[in-house]
Every structure is written in structure tokens, then in C-alpha cells.
Amino acid sequence: MRTQVQLKRALNAGLSALALLVPAGVAAQTAQPSEPALEEIIVTAQRRSENLQEVPVSVAAISGDTFRDYLAGGGDVLALSARVPGLYAETSTGRIFPRFYIRGLGNNDFYLGASQPVSIIIDDVVMENVVLKSSPLFDTQQVEVLRGPQGTLFGRNTTAGIIKFDSIAPSHETQGRGTVTYGTFGTVTADAGVGGSLIDGVLAIRASAMVQHRGDWVDNTADGTKLGGYDDKAARVQFLLTPGEDTDVLLNVHGRDLDATSTLFRGYALTKGSHKLNGNYDKDKVAYNDGDANDQSYEGWGSSLKVDHDFGNVVLTSITAYETTNGYSRGDTDGTAGNFAESQGNIDDLDQWTQELRLASDTTGPLNWQVGGFYFDSDEQLTFRPYNFFETGGASGFVTLGNENRSWAVFGQAGYRITDDLKLTGGLRWTEDKKEMNVLRALQAGTFTSVEDGRRITQASYTGIRHVELKDDELSWDASAFYDLTDEVSVFGRIARGFRGPTIQGRTVSFNGAPTTATSETILSYEAGLKSSLLDDRLRLNGAVYTYTVNDIQLTAFDGNGTARLLNADKGVAYGLEVDAEAYLTPDFIVTAGLTYTDTEIKDDQVTTSVCSGGVCTVKDPLVNGRAKIDGNPFPNAPEYILSLTARYNMPLADGSNLFLFTDWNMTGRTNFVLYESEEFYSKGDFEGGLKIGYENPDRTYEVALFGRNITNEKNVKGVIENYLAAVVNDPMTVGISFTARLP
Fold it and tell me: How much is the pLDDT for 127?
């Protein structure tokens, strides 16, 4: 007891010192009963509703309203990048291929069948394929980012973390909201949802829709066409059936239709010896001689059926879901009019089925538990055109692959409150993961020609492996302790083992090479954190320190001929810290701030990767037979640090209405884009900011505002095509007006 008292005294002394670092506007005030407090944030990080401050997991939450502010200029899910501590995202394939990284761990492979260590879960359904991960997000209730391995409870195993999106659900209360914006480049967005009771107490509905449009605003000086625009439309309808007081049935049906410009590659926008954009970059102009205007088009739909039945002290949950999509994306990958380098990837057909069954306790005692099973079944047919090849004489010029993935798992978790202050939680998951790839159509002699030094070279027919099958099973687990030091401050510790199954990559088939593979990777992660609600709940301060080791880490190397291959390095290690803070500086002024620092390192003194061809870049790593040794290099697309800040200031008017100003900023530290280190292929100190100035009427049923995204018009490089010193650059500044309405 004496030790506990001493610990609490020491903690109070430490918090007093910490208060000196809190902005004076917070620390100087004495809380009054009428003054606002931060709202409680409810998350489902452990598949049950809990206060964010009581969960032994590093998790950040963003409200639907804040997320919509990020999307105001026509943005998509990539708008989350660097706006949550530890989260980074990028793409080299436009709106249909987001790649995510949490605490530095992700996958930069551009193969349509690539697996990622970050899982996307939308309305309780895991979205595995990269195109499904790009599903439009609208009428959103909340976004949660779970950092670290999360395999025990959520869908498929994930070694890096989870981004979880929850839509506003149906209710028997009549509710509705909608936001419409108009801005630069003719950008129009509409995001709305409305619902209520169809049969009082028995059947409720919510219908939601989204439209995003941008006009073509970039001139292709090579042929006089224009590109850069998009039309992205989506809709969802949900029915909530309550046949009895113990049963809820939620049906979700949704669809998407996308026609857009894919990523614009800016050829030779980098200069050898520098990572800065040069004069070849012009945001309004490109010069493409192929790529068919970098066109992309996708459509798909899906549905899910969630059933909850309360047996008294136990709730049974079943989630059955189906997703399908098809489409294509094409691009001039060299970004110039002087080379013949284009690429096209198609999903001819994708079908994903998932089934989850979960039995969970529903009591108020010291013990809570849940057990369940999960089944995943995905079939996809992919067709792609390789770099530097094109159709001749009307012959078919595509390679077609058939991918199958079957996985099933059983899992369980239990938590027990040892004392009023201490709770222990542990979980186990056993997974079997099987992948197959079949070469359905390959290159035939005389079908293709390549251009090398001005000569046309006939491509030989494919003679490689046509069937690859990999299978593995692993045990994942986690254990955590959560301890309340005081009523305001808690600490937690967590150890977790995660697993990502074996992977097959088929792009090398287009160059008469055998498919490449990577064996399973496993991660062991350690973290310790603090969660606190201080100053009468006007300051929420959470943080964690962490370290992890990924054994047999899966990496993607981009070879000199423009294709990509999978490999395993011995291990990857990382350590870092993250801080989330939210505070009322005054009753009308609220700020949030986030910080992540991550140090990542590849450890394998034998592994090498090819580098840029023709000596167009400056390689800093040791070379062995023209290949770079990458031992000691950081993970690709792992920012050294991420800083984020938001602030909202309200100016109440005499009639009860309100003027407000909202701004958000983020900055990222050095970020290497490839496996090897060079003078060209990285970014450092990039930042972006947004601004919104608006008016709310007295009963808050409508809002009108002016907004700006990337308001300082920063030109940030987000990726590269190495052989052509081509850069992928963020969107320029957009400004506009928005109108939001809510049913009273």
C-alpha cells in the first residue's frame, strides 16, 4: 500500500511538471461547472464498445465531421496520411490503389494482387484487395486507427495495424445530414445520408450517397488532350431489422462507379544529385505519347449481413459479407513523350467472401471474454500489360493470372479485472493461409515487340512456371496489462505476435520470368503507454513507446527492366514513440496535436536490390555486381517523424449563431521511397495545411464555409519511377465553398 501511495505521489508531481508544458490558456484556467469538457470517445478496438481511455491498445479516433473536412477538396482515403500519429499513405495508381504504413511498416508493391500488413475494415468487413481498400468513404461516423499487430480479433492477420471505418448506422429516430462543396478545377463533392423508421420499433433504414467530380485540368502538350479529372460515385443502403428485443439484423448493400485519371508521372522532374523538383515539373502540363490519357475505370458492389442475438449473458454475432469489383488502370509510366513505357493493370473479376462468427460475454463482472472463427475466400483474375511493351498487329498483348486465397482462423480473448485498478487481457489466434497463382495467359512468340536503342525486338514466348502454391499456419497472440494510477491517469503494456501469410507476385511473368514469392513474415511487438484525462477533462494526453522486430520481412524490389519481385530479408527492426493530445485552451478554442518518431532498419547483410538503370541516379549504398546492399537502410515509405496539428476557434454571436475557424497541418520527416538510399529518391520536411472559415446558424441545422486544402500550394514528391527520374506529386492548392445541412 505504501508503495502504491508513493507511486501516486510521484505521478502527481510528474503531472504537475508536465502541466508547465501545457499551453498557458489551459493551465491558467480554473475549471467551472459550465465550462466544456472533452467528449468521451467510444471505440471498438476490442470488438466491443469501450472508452478510448480504458483500452490497452494504442488507438486514435477521428470523428466523421473532421474526416469530411479532410475530404473537402475532393480527396479520398489518402487524406488520412500524416493526420494520425504513425499513419502514412501514398499511391502510384490513382484513386484505386492506396498503400498504407503504420509505425513505418507497409508494402510499396504496385501489383494488384499485393498483400499489405495494414488491414482496412469498413463496417466490420475486412477489405483485402488493394482496390477494395480504396472503397469510397461517405456518411462516416468515425475512423479508428489501431497501431501495432491486431491479428487476434480482426478478420485477417495484420502485422502493422488496422484502419477501421464505421458508417452512420440506421436508427428509428429520423436523422439526416449532407455536405456539398464546390472548388478549384470544377471540383464538386456531395456526401449525404438520411434515415429513420419504416416500421416503428421493427425496421429502420438509412440511405447514403456520395459524388465526387473534378474536371480535366492538365494539358497533355503531346496530343492536345486534357486529363486529371475524375467522377467517383457511390451509394449505400442499410436496413436494421429488430424482430425481437434480443435480436438485431443489419443488412448493408453498397456500390461504386469510378471513371478517373490515374496517377500523373512527371518524367525527369528530378535532377541527378537532388531530391527537389526541377523546372520540368509544371502542375498544369504533361507530355504523354502513350498511356491512353492515364485512364482508369472501376465498378463494383458488395453486401453484408450482421446478426446479433443476445442470449442473456452472452451475445452471438454473425457477419457474412461479399465484395466484387472489376476495372482497369493505365498510365504513361515514364511521364514523357520521348519513351515507350506504359503499363496497364486490370481486375477482370474479383470475388471475396468472408464469414465471421463470434460469441462474447455481456456481463458487468470482472471477467469478459469472446471466442470465434473466421473464414476468408478470394478469387481474382488479373490481366496486365508489362512495361516497355505494346500490342502489334491486333494481337493480344496481356498476361493473365488467376489468384486464389483461402484462409481460416479460430480466435479467443479474455480480460480479467484483478483489482479495481488492474486489468489483464490476453488473446490467441490460430490461422491457416493458402495462396495459389495460375498463369492463364502468357506471352507468345511474335506477339510483342520492345523498343531497345531504336530497334524492335521480338519477345519470346513464356516458358516459365505456370502454377505456384504456398501454404502456412501460425499462432498469433497478445497480452496486455492496464493499470489505473489515479482517476485521471492510466498506464498499459502490451506484447503482441502477428503474422502475414506467404505472398505470390506474378509481374515477372511478363518478362519470361518465373513468379516470385515471399514466405510468411512474423512480428513481435512491445509497447508501453500512458492514457490521461487531465484538468477536469479539458486535456486528453495519450502516448506510447514501442519497438518491434519483423522476422523474414517481406520486401518488394523494383528491377531495372521496370518490373517488381518479392523477397524476404532476414529481419526488420524498429523503435519509436507517439503522442496524441487534445485540449480546450478556452471554452471556444480546441486544439489537437500528434507526434510520431520511428526509426526503422533492414537487417540482412546478404540481401541486395537492383538500382536505377543507366546511372541516372546517385546510389549511396555499396554495390555488388551492380546491385545495392540494403543492410541498415530504413523501410520504404517510413517517415522518420510525423507531426500533426488541428485547431478550431469559435466566435459565438449574440443571436446564438457561431462563426468558426478550423485549420489542420501536418509535416513528415525524411522518407525513403525505395529500398536503396540515393541522393534523389526521398523527401524531407514536407508539409501541408488546410483551412476552413464558416458560419453556423443558432440551432446548428446548417453551416456554410470557405475552405482551402494545401493552402500554401506545397509541391511535395510522394513517389518515384526511378529509371526516368519521374516524380509523383501531391495535388496543388484547392479552394472552395461548402454547405452542410442537418435535420433538426
Answer: 95
Contact 191, 167 (CB under 8 A): no
8 A C-beta contact, residue 327 and residue 298: yes
List of E strands, 604-657 = 608-609, 623-624, 627-629, 641-652
Q: Give the strand pairing for 399-417 and 367-385.
A: antiparallel
Q: Which cell numbers hold the place of 330?
A: 493505365
The cell numbers describing 625, all together, are 555486381
Residue 138 burial (CB < 10 Å; 0-12/13-18/19+)? Answer: buried
Q: What is the pTM of this model?
A: 0.91
In the structure grid, which three cell numbers stand for residue 366, read together?
A: 470482472
Kindly state the average pLDDT of the residues 285-290: 90
Residues 6 or more apart whose CB falls under 8 angstroms from that of 612 comprise 560, 619, 678, 722, 723
Q: In terms of C-beta density within 10 A (0-12 exposed, 13-18 middle, 19 or more buried), how is residue 224 classed?
A: exposed
The widest CA-to-CA distance across the chain, in whole angstroms, is: 87
The whole-number average pLDDT for the span 47-62 is 85
User: How many angstroms separate the CA atoms of 574 and 602, rounded?
Assistant: 9
Flag the least confident range among 126-130, 402-406, 454-458, 649-653: 454-458
pLDDT tens for residues 654-700? 999 999 999 999 999 999 999 999 999 999 999 999 999 999 999 99
On the question of pLDDT at 279 being above 50, the answer is: yes
Based on DSSP, count helices (H) and strands (E) in the chain, helices before strands.
3, 49
Q: How would you list the strands of the sheet with 99-102, edge to edge?
A: 87-90, 99-102, 105-106
Q: Among all chains, which residue has been given the C-alpha cell 485477417? A: 156
Compute the distance between CA of residue 718 and CA of residue 25 in angstroms, rounded to an integer. Answer: 37
Cα 731 to Cα 721: distance, rounded to the nearest angstrom: 18
Given a cut of 50, is residue 10 above it in pLDDT?
Answer: no
Measured between alpha carbons, how far is 578 from 102 in angstroms, rounded to an integer?
A: 11
Pairing of strands 627-629, 489-500: unpaired
Q: Which of 224, 217, 236, 242 is nearest to 306 (CA)?
A: 242
β-strands 161-167, 140-147 pairing? antiparallel
Q: Rounded to whole angstroms, how far apart are CA atoms 138 and 154? A: 22
The pLDDT mean for the chain works out to: 88
469 DSSP assignment:
E
494 falls in which pLDDT band (50, 70, 90)? very high
Q: Which helix (H) or strand (E) holds 11?
A: helix 2-19
Please answer whether residues 80 and 89 qualify as being in contact, where contact means their C-beta atoms are separated by less than 8 angstroms: yes
| Residue closest to 127 by CA, chosen among 142, 140, 116, 138 | 116
Q: How many CB atoms lie within 10 A of CB 196?
A: 16
Given phi > 0 = left and psi -120 to 50 = alpha, else beta, which region is 82? Answer: left
**Contacts of 297 by beta carbon, 8 Å cutoff, 6+ apart:** 258, 259, 260, 327, 328
Residues 6+ apart with CB under 8 A from 34: none
Measured at the CA of 106, the angle between CA 49 and CA 663, to 5 degrees, comes to 65
Phi, psi of 414 (to 5 degrees): -140, 145
- Other CB atoms within 10 A of residue 581 CB: 18
Q: Give the sign of the dihedral formed by CA 723, CA 560, CA 446, CA 505.
A: negative
Closest by alpha carbon to 79, among 683, 664, 684? Answer: 664
Q: How far apart are CA 324 and CA 380, in angstroms?
A: 9
